Amino acid sequence: MTIDWDDVRYFLAVARHGSVRAAAAQLEVNHTTVLRRIAQLEAQLHSQLFEKLPAGYRLTEAGEQVQELAEQMEASSNLLVSRVSGRDQAVRGPLRVTMAPTLATHLLMPDFAAFTRQHPEIEMEIHSSLENANLTNREADVALRVVFDRNSLPQNLHGVKGPDLSVGVYMSRDLLAAWKDGKSGNIRWISKNIEGVPEWAQGDVVEITGAPFRVPEDAAHLEAMRLGLGISALPSFVGDAEPLLVRVPGTRLGPHGTLWVLTQGETRKTKRVRLFTEFISERLRAHAGVLAGDTSRQDQSSKLDSHRRTAISLQNA
User: Fold this and answer.
1) Distance CA 195, CA 214 (A)
2) Residue 135 above 70 pLDDT?
3) Using the 8-state DSSP alphabet, how is residue 189 labeled?
4) Residue 20 in contact with residue 14, Cβ under 8 Å?
5) pTM, to two decimals
6) What is the Cα–Cα distance from 102 to 234, expressed in whole angstroms?
7) pLDDT by residue (tens digit) across 146-198?
8) What is each CA distance from 229 to 139, 199, 207, 212, 214, in whole angstroms?
9) Quick one: pLDDT band at residue 73, thresholds 50, 70, 90?
10) Burial classification of residue 185, based on how many CB atoms lie within 10 Å of its CB (0-12 exposed, 13-18 middle, 19 or more buried)
11) What whole-number distance in Å separates Cα of residue 149 and Cα of residue 258?
12) Higher pLDDT residue, 1 or 170?
């Protein structure tokens, strides 16, 4: 009897998520495909692997035994792919990079454009998400990850430490002008979640008196700030680069973690991955002042605009 590895992958996805729909979303298929694959595996093994409960899917005793062996198969498969791909020294082929959306949108896209100009046969794929991609399972080749505790980094990943990041408190210039004139009314805290104003962000000049305004999505959150709906915290490299925003008087910068460039196992030995990690590590060092909030708005805006113009001119050369 030969077990189809694809059936095992579907089994593992359901086992880990406890949900067929969540597994389908991860695998980018519909839920009926997941159910069909699970049924095929159960038929081959002559065992029921899951118990269907109101809250989701729970492994049976047989399923728990299969999961242990399936994870060994997965590890062997990943090791095989990593070792073979690690021998790939061609400066071509796919390169998947994952990071937080703000880094891609507000800082690094000109750098990615410059890299693709230097290496036109590398097929870059940028995943901008707050979810941490699993490098061991080859969900990405390189991760640019904001880390608050170095000890939280998985031991199997290779990491290059980058700059520290800061976060500041910002408001629109128009709202600040209205506040100075005594015409701002109640000032709201704009939040991405249900939590209140963090202790480090509480200033001693501008008082927050209005009801909270919650906007979970990044782009909408920033637009609410531009429109003067209230004040909020932003990574300093985002807030300082926004011409319509200014740091709130009486507030200070807070720590926002450290940026790390992460790769895994044999994958990091491929030439395209090595070229990119060396390139982006150098660019992050150049951005260190911006990421730490040490650069003035004028200097930062000038440098970023110049950087963008250079990247665009290279693309059009």
Assistant:
1) 10
2) yes
3) B
4) yes
5) 0.64
6) 10
7) 998 888 887 788 889 999 999 999 999 999 999 999 998 889 999 988 777 87
8) 38, 21, 14, 10, 11
9) confident
10) exposed
11) 9
12) 170
Lowest-pLDDT range of 109-123, 156-170, 194-208, 271-285: 194-208
Task: State the chain's mean pLDDT as an integer.
Answer: 85
Residue 167's contacts (CB-CB under 8 Å, 6 or more residues apart) are 233, 234, 235, 236, 253, 254, 255, 256
Distance CA 193, CA 70 (A): 38
Following CA atoms 226, 230, 233, 237 in sequence, which dihedral angle do they give, to the nearest 10 degrees? 20
Indicate if the alpha-carbon torsion angle 242, 244, 245, 249 is positive or negative. Answer: positive
Of 227, 233, 238, 226, give the one whose Cα is nearest residue 208: 233
Hey, how many other C-beta atoms are within 10 angstroms of the C-beta on 75? 12
Residue 26 tokens, joined = 């991860």
* DSSP 8-class letter at 231: B
Residue 99 pLDDT level (bands cut at 50, 70, 90): very high
Burial annotation 103-135 (CB, 10 A radius, 16+ → b, else e): bbebbbebbbbbbbeebeebeeebebeeeebeb
Task: Give the number of other CB atoms < 10 A from CB of residue 300.
Answer: 19
